Known about the structure:
Strand order of the largest sheet: 1-2-5-4-3-6-7-12-11-8-9-10
Mean pLDDT: 80
CATH topology of the largest domain: Rossmann fold
Shape: globular
Low-confidence stretches: 1-22, 130-139, 273-280
Structural class: alpha/beta
Order of helices and strands: EEEHHEHEHEHEEHHEHEHEHE
Number of domains: 2
CATH class of the largest domain: Alpha Beta
Number of strands: 12
Amino acid sequence: MSVRWPDSHGVNRTLLWKPDEEPGMRALCATDLSAASEAAIENETCLDCLGRIGIGTIHLVTVVPANVHSGMPGINLDRRRQQGLDRYRDVIAAAGFEVETHVVRGTPYRRINGIAETVRADLTVVSSRGQSPLENRIIGSTARNLARTTVVPLLVSRVEREADDPDVLREHLFQRILFATDFSEHADRAFDAFSYLHPATEEATLVHVRSSKDAGADSGPDPRERLAEHAGTLEGWGIETRIEVREGDPADEILDVEADVTPSTVVVGSKGRSRIRRLLLGSVSEEVVARAAGNVFLVPPPRAV
C-alpha cells in the first residue's frame, strides 16, 4: 500500500506500508541524489546487510539547502528530485523494506539529525567519496558535520572517489569488523552495538593502542585479557575473532590495522557533548572517520531524554 501526504512543513512524504509485518529497526539514509549516494542506496549487498541487522524501515531523506531555488525557467528541480527519490524508494521497497521519503529545506546535517530524532531512527547512513587525493583528512562537509553532531549511530559508507559511476568500496557492511577500544565508557557503548550487528558479522578484529598517555597505567588489567573478554562474547555469537595490542599514536595504529586486515567497517565510539557548543568527536574518532579507507560506524552518546 502506498500513501502520500504533506507533512507539517508542506513537504510531500511517501510511505510504502506493510501493516502485517513488524517494522523492526529504522535506518535513515541521507542522499543528495548524487552518483555517490546512488551507489550506496541501490547496492543490493548493502541493503541485505541492513536487513540482516534488523532494519525493517528505511527513511530516505534529501535536504534542499535554503539558498537553492526550484530551478531555472523550464527546469523543474522539485519534480526531478522527487523522481530520483521515487526510483530509490522502488529499489529499496523491492528489497523488502518499508520506505518513507522526506524532502526538507535547510542545513543538511541539522535537518538530518532532526528527522533522525523525530522518526526515532536507530542509525543514519551517509555516503562519502573517501579520501581526497589532495588532503586525506577531508570528507564531505555533510558527512563531517554529521560525524560531529549525530544523535544516533552513524554509518559513513565509502564509495569510489574518481569514478563517474562509482561503486561502494566495502559492500558487505558488517561482515568483517575492526573494533577499536580504549576501554572507556564510550568504547563500551560502541561494543554494545554488536548486540544487533552480530547477525551480519563473520569476523572481528579487536584492537587497543597503548599511547604515551598510558605510561604509569601498567598496574591496571592487562589489555589482552580485557580484549579476550570481548572476544569471548563475540565468539559466543559464532564470530571468528582476533585481538591486537599496539603501541604508538592511536589513530595511526588503528588505521594501520585497517590496512592490514581490510575490514568492511571500523567501529568506534565518540565522546559526549561539549559544554562550549556542540557534540564533538574525540580526536582519535575524528581521525578514523576522516582517514579510514573503508566504512566507519560511529556510536555517539545516548539521546538526551
